Amino acid sequence: MPKPVINLADIVLEPRPPMFAPSGETAERFEAKMGFIGPRIGAQKLGYNVTAVPPGKSAFPPHNHHANEEMFFILQGTGELRVGQDAYPLRVGDVIACPPGGKDTAHQIFNSGTEELRYLAVSTKLSPELVEYPNSGKFGVLAELPPGADGRPQRFMFVGRESQSLDYWEGE
């Protein structure tokens, strides 16, 4: 088992993998560096990371989870939590709860300050997960799968729109 303790100073923040990096117009609104903690300390049922967002940007678009609950703790900077049509100012020391639910629970953290916004993100890791993105009408399905023959973790991920759904019997 890995050592169950890590200091925030020892967490290296890295850019997102290329397949999850915003490009084009989205790069103007979304940017973040993340340092993943959970696997390093042996977490099994919770995910942990530190996220750093530059001024004027968000890490993710507004979204709601149907299975997983998230908690955020503001470590540095100021910002705004958007939930549905409501907005709440954020500052160092604030704790945020984002329980699972429908589109009315869609949330987003925005850096409205002049310095980097850093927060600790903690979430349950229930699988499969369904996430909706109300602004774009998209949804995402993510399922963590057993490790492959090489021992590496595997996952199934699909992002689409309900209007693009196939007929159940198509191609059978």
Written description of the protein model:
This protein has one helix at residues 38-41; strands spanning 14-15, 33-36, 46-53, 64-65, 70-76, 79-83, 86-90, 95-98, 107-110, 117-124, 129-133, 138-145, 154-161. It has 172 residues and is mainly β. It has a domain at 8-126: Jelly Rolls, CATH 2.60.120.10. The mean pLDDT is 95.
Which labels suit this protein?
172 residues; mainly beta; Jelly Rolls; four-stranded antiparallel beta sheet; 1 helix; 13 strands
Walk me through the topology.
Layout: E1 14-15, E2 33-36, H1 38-41, E3 46-53, E4 64-65, E5 70-76, E6 79-83, E7 86-90, E8 95-98, E9 107-110, E10 117-124, E11 129-133, E12 138-145, E13 154-161
For this structure, the CATH topology of one domain is: Jelly Rolls
Q: Hey, roughly how much beta strand do the residues contain?
A: 35-45%
H/E element order: EEHEEEEEEEEEEE
Poorly predicted segments: none
